[in-house]
Amino acid sequence: MTDPSAADAEKAAEFEHHRSLLFGVAYRMLGTVGDAEDVVQEAFLRFRQADEVHSPRPFLVRIVTNLSLDVLKSAREQRETYIGPWLPEPLETALSPQEQMLMGESISMAFLVLMESLSPLERAVYLLREVFSYEYEDIAQMIGRGESACRQLYHRAKAHVSERRPRFAVAPEAHQRVVEQFLTAVGSGDLHRLEMLLAEDVRLWSDGGGKVTAATRPLTGAATVAEFLIGISRGYDPARMTTEIVQVNGSAALLIREGGRAIVVFTFDTDGERLTALRLIRSPDKLIRL
Q1: DSSP class of 198
Q2: Distance CA 213, CA 200 (A)
Q3: Domain range list for the chain
Q4: How does pLDDT run across 254-275, given as a tens digit for each residue?
Q5: pLDDT range class, residue 5, cuts 50, 70, 90
Q6: CATH number of the domain at 4-86+113-164, please?
Q7: pTM of structure
Q8: CA–CA dist 290, 264 (Å, integer)
Q9: For 172-286, which CATH class?
Q10: 104 — phi, psi (to 5°)?
Q11: Residues 210, 82: contact at Cβ < 8 Å?
Q12: DSSP three-state, residue 212
């Protein structure tokens, strides 16, 4: 007779082997660290209660995918009434330059925002196929749809993503350099220098979650964005603030703290020379893990 405690320990060890994959699926599906962690924990409970699982990895990915789809149903309704732009919760990462090039885009802020424009099923199929390389037969079993339907969902999602994804693949070193130049320009209060660092059609989104002051609509254009950034920088007290370049969602970002507490994260898209998009996450709920 199998010792129940030994069986539980074996299952726990097996689950830990897949935890990073499961979190990766859930986070890319949901765009929030807390919800992703909750989904992974629920998957563990269901795995522990299952009588016999011959193939743990597909079993667990199926559970996480379907739990994420359930969460998205209510989340999408809440986001429709969200005050101002909704941005994903930033995830602090520690990828090597090689890992950034290989997988950085699939956890980038730009990619996660793009996932928001897909339907939940499109998102699930696209991620499982494009990011995690599952076959259509496996995806069909995971989400309870036919292979033909999964192919249609994937091709529709891929066409949508291809039309809207960033135009430039930038080396991590080039991205870091532009972020450093941005920090210098804003820190010096040099409006002209900052404006020259921004693409002519640059866009800025600011997510305050209705809890802190933030732009409730996207800002467009180098002059408009530069003036906005210089304006908010003047409201910061250097004696209480610290600014550091950190790796968030696979690339260099700015993290500003006040009294040790994170108050804003800046993430960037760049063509290697100028910034093409900026996203400011100021919602306190999305900064508590940084």
Answers
A1: E
A2: 26
A3: 4-86+113-164, 172-286
A4: 999 998 999 999 999 999 999 9
A5: confident
A6: 1.20.140.160
A7: 0.91
A8: 10
A9: alpha beta
A10: -60, -35
A11: yes
A12: coil
